[in-house]
Amino acid sequence: MLLCMNECLLRVGCCCCCCCCCCVLVVLLSFTGALVCHNSDLQLNDFCAGAGKPPMFGDYEAQRHWQEVTYNLPVQEWYFNTTDNDLNYWGLDYPPLTAYHSWVCAYIAKMINPEWVELHKSRAYESPAHKLFMRATVLVADLLIYIPAVVLYCFYLTDGSSRKKVSTLFCFLLYPGLILIDYGHFQYNAVSQGFALWGILALGLGWDALGSMAFSLALNYKQMELYHALPFFCYLLGKCVKTGLTGRGFFMLLRIAVTVLVSFALCWLPFLSDPSQALQVVRRIFPVARGLFEDKVANTWCSLNVLIKIRFILSRDSQLYLSLVCTLLAVLPSSIKLLTKPDFWQFKLALANSSLAFFLFSYQVHEKSILLAALPVCLLLNDLPLVVIWFLQASTFSMLPLFLKDGLLVPYVVTSAGFLFFSVYLLSALERCTEDELRLGAYHKLLFFLPKMDLACMMRWKFYVSIAAMAGLSVASVALVPPPHLPDLFPVLVSVTAFLHFLGTFIYLNIVQFSRPPTRKSQKKIN
């Protein structure tokens, strides 16, 4: 008995020690990353979106301006066009939780330097000290919300040894796309993704009400979390139906519904007293006047636009209906599969397939929206390492025109190369490139009419060619001048190349979801 107790204590001690070491490692990595970003900023001058570029000055100024507005104006004016709040100049277009976060940041900024959030006079304010403060707010949000969720997911909901879990954690946090957008271009994507990941973590551990609350917070921080909403809905509804809607399942569904309603009500409380306030917020966060897509986003409509000018052929309403129908058709198979088989493996795949379907086919997609697909794909790092690394590399590459516009070439090259090297090495991605590991069995059935091929070898060579093509296009985008009659040649080539990668990943993950599930359990059950 004493031996058993000693063994248990030893295991607990080892786990605690391992977790502590991981947390310290993560904090050090994050702090180092923030310092690198700031130092690069000082060396490369305008190392953030739109710095010194009137009249709008980019996303960095948008975040600063929201702090100015939320601190100086009453809540009732945050989403309305007034003499003190020009909605044409970075008007708030995110849900209330983003506004509250901006207010908290502004309160701290006011204590440090009132000039940073002074009404009207602070417009387009830029200084090294302010940039350091803004990036510090991103880091604090990461440390409080995103990183703890990633750590817990990697240690509690992935299989393998402690070393493998640490490697998965390291690669998860090294994903260049999120780092470059949040710290370089400048946004707070990790906050909404962190809340969503807390929701995924809670559902994986069997805490459905808590998971519903966390995902409600994600939706109330960024409306684009709707990319993940259908899998959450289907997974929870499927569990309730499986349990029995005439008994325990009904009370489970009722508890989840009440949790979601209360969470939304609390987030929207300041706007519920006046229906016009709530309607204005909804109008701001769901604008349909902006068009089918923006810039050179790597989705279906932008790629198709090279051959067929959809935006000129169809009316805006027709574009909206077309994208809605295509998105629903794309997401339907995955959702039905999850609804009929609500387990955690299906849930992870449905999250990836749903977010990719929305990115590829939905209305008003930004190039940064690929981050919403990257999060659920990251959840599969331990299961499908080569495919996930490949996709994450392509997702970062798809935002290359944006990074070049923001002066982020050097950070893009360094973070992309570092992620590729460490992830392939630490996760043994090329060594694990077998038909069983890649779940390619279903492909032989689909390609029965062709001679039997070594699909794993083909995947490996496609990976090499793909990485070489992305590297070549990255160099060409910087080193070569496009012909005068094709000024957008390289952004379009980047967009179409990335689109083909995303479409291939979408088809692959759908086939994996409908094929034989892995024999090992992808979650730990807690009663």
Give a verbal description of the structure.
The longest helix has about 40 residues, at about 1-45. It contains 23 helices and no strands. Helix 16 (about 345-360) runs antiparallel to helix 23 and helix 18 (about 385-400) runs antiparallel to helix 20. The protein has a domain at about 25-150. The model is unreliable at about 1-30, about 35-45 and about 520-525 (pLDDT under 50). It is globular, with a radius of gyration of 23 Å. With about 525 residues, it is mainly α. Its EC number is 2.4.1.-.
Topology:
Layout: H1 2-43, H2 58-72, H3 96-112, H4 128-156, H5 162-173, H6 176-186, H7 189-204, H8 208-221, H9 229-243, H10 248-267, H11 269-272, H12 275-285, H13 300-304, H14 310-313, H15 316-340, H16 344-361, H17 370-378, H18 385-398, H19 400-405, H20 409-426, H21 441-446, H22 455-479, H23 489-514
Radius of gyration: 23 Å
How would a textbook summarize the main sheet? none
The outline comes out as globular
Find the structural class using helix and strand composition.
mainly alpha
Distance between the termini: 26 Å
Key terms for this structure?
527 residues; membrane; EC 2.4.1.-; mainly alpha; 23 helices; transmembrane
